[in-house]
Amino acid sequence: MQRKALGALALFLTFVLLFCSCTGGGEPTENGENSADTGNETVQSLSVSLPYFESDSCNPYFAVSTENRALASLFYAPLYRVNADFAPKAVLAERVDGGGTSYTVTLKTAVFSNGKSVTAADVVYSFNLAKNSAWYGARLANVQSAKAQGNAVVFTLSAPERYFENLLTFPVVQSGTADTADAVPVGSGAFVLSADGTVTENPHSTRGAVQTVRLVHIKDASHLGDALEIGNIDFVFDDFADGNYTRIVAQNTFVTMNNLVYLGMNCTVGALTSAAVRTAIYYAADKDNVAASAYRGCAESAALPFHPAFCKAQGLALGQTAADTARASEILGKIGYNRYDKNGRLTNGQNTLGMTILVNGANGFRLSAAYAVADNLNAAGFSVTVENVSDEVYRARIASGAFTLYLGEVKLGENMSPSPFFGGAASAGADSTLPVFAAYTAFAAGEVSLSDFANAFLDDMPFVPLCYRAGLAAYSRSIAPDFSAAAYDIYGDITLWTAA
Questions:
Q1: What's this model's pTM, rounded to 2 decimal places?
Q2: Which residues pair with 48 in a beta bridge?
Q3: Average pLDDT estimate for 355-359
């Protein structure tokens, strides 16, 4: 059933790619006229119940739970949304100009729920809150500052960033309304949140079929599935962050996220200093099996660092996801790994192929993936064991470089930037002298194409992409939610929800 769901998702993404331009575009629904009609067809009105936690803030810059953060798309419009194929869709932004480390975003004419105009000063205020928040701050780490300039905002970056507009997904709120966790910001979304937790219609915005939203307090996150099954709420999203698959009896769809699972390699030690050995590991690893078996179908295999659905990467026939044990063995033989040492490990007379995959076994998915990859590598001639350690030891070992291989996961930005591997949080064990580092810098600056960077990546193989992890959206039979948005936007565009 899980594979069928993923197949359905693939067909849906294909539909999106056929009918959505990779340059985004399209008018936002946040600032239209209040109507439940489309042409001459009357849209059936819907009332939906969504979960939230009273113990957590509903201010999007202070919320920590997945459920409370997700509410932002109901009450606040961003500069851009990002589609399921990671193409940007302008919302409050008219256009973005510039490049390198400076971009100028010109605003559309829009108003908040209280009728006041959305200004560049409001965007700067919102950016500063987002920059300092835990959730939005990570994707804005490379953005130094924002400055109002008439009806536009000038963003200054620390380093060039490809597909910059994809990062501008933070909620835009009215200046001075979101300073504390208890504050209820003023936004321009389809609905308005009141201080007492009630939700009303935004008189200045379109709501589509959904005319009423009710927030339902959930005391414990473990009860979300039960609340959906008995009809107390209409939508639940589970990202399986704990590494365990939980079945929910309801309509459901797998949604592949931008969480990349990968095999990290210490490129500065032993046999791993050889690009050929690293390439042999790439071909030996069965990414399809990791996604289907180790992740129980809750993932999509990846041949490159980029998401398979990424619109900019469509048509790149590079790399592969299935294991090619014969090719891996052939590569090793050609570079001299054709005899055994006294411990029975293949050697070229200088280095052996004895390695260990370090993994934090608290996450069941990653532990299963580590053992699956170890089996793949051993079938190709490596001698690999799995070392299951605590999270504290895992992080300390990686930070100190005390590893050969490790099973890791990193959430990329909505612009699919692989920057965490090139000097960022996932760069442990990297050799910055490899040509792929210069290729990445040129790619980020817009000087070379994505295809050129992908070829450089496959030549040097600084790490091995395995799969992109998926979450599960489960919902009541009465609704058909919007899944045209990337998974960070759990409810997508609620104005596009319809009756099932």
A1: 0.89
A2: 213
A3: 98
